[in-house]
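=== RUN LOG ===
request id: a7f3
mode: sequence -> structure
chains: 1
length: 271
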Amino acid sequence: MSWRRHISGCVFSLFFVVSYFTNKFVLSVLKFTYPTLFQGWQTFIGALLLLLFGKLGWVEMSRITRSAALPWLPASLLFVGNIYAGSRALSHIKMRWMTFISICLMLLSAINLPLYDPQFDNSGYLWAVAHLFCVGAYRVFQVHYKPRDLSDLEIQCINYLFSVLLLAAAAHPTGDLMAAMEFPSLQSYTFHCGCCASALLGFFLLLATVKLKSGISLEHFGIWCFISKVSAVCLSPLVFSMEINAPSLICVLGSHVGEALLVYSEREPQL
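=== RESULT ===
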């Protein structure tokens, strides 16, 4: 792997960690728990910047036709469910022995973590289950139907635009709109900076992801994702106030060991 690919990977990891930390700051520290508004804002900025960058020729995007966009809308619906649920989850299962062991480790860790987590929140884990379903269904749709006439950026632009429309329509029925108007930190400079940073960082993370995936194999991309996740986990206690005990720490470590085995098992055969 050339030094340029290492730089792309480091940039991806940097945006990954900073983006997720910013989102956690707004959602957890500032307690702005209104996903139709927060993620609607993020997808709106993402779509706006993608269209602007495409118009200026800074990213490669062609005109998205209706015939190309319509078949992808079911996946966009799953994308909305993915970001609405909010957590990361497992990928599809391949039944090789090391992959099976890795999936078992991650599954056992996920099952046991709610039992020992000192910060346990029942609704949080229910949304994690919803995220698991949406991520899995989105991956299946992506594998079995990947439009040849749409690039990754164009697909993401469709996801963003669909998300903005759906989340905007859901903001009032869910009560998020009225509750957000009474949010204590609504006029806070820190709140506005955090929301702007989360949208911009999410967009640049998208660009870094597409750039990294275009220059390396999926196996190496999985390695960089794993490195980024481990970096985020290791740095989290230094940035955020967290309660943790030995059993929950073992669950987190077991999950990452399982993912490490998954990444290793999916490497290309070395000749």
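=== NOTES ===
Residues 54 and 253 are 41 Å apart (CA to CA).
Confidence is low (pLDDT under 50) at residues 87-93, 95-103.
=== END ===
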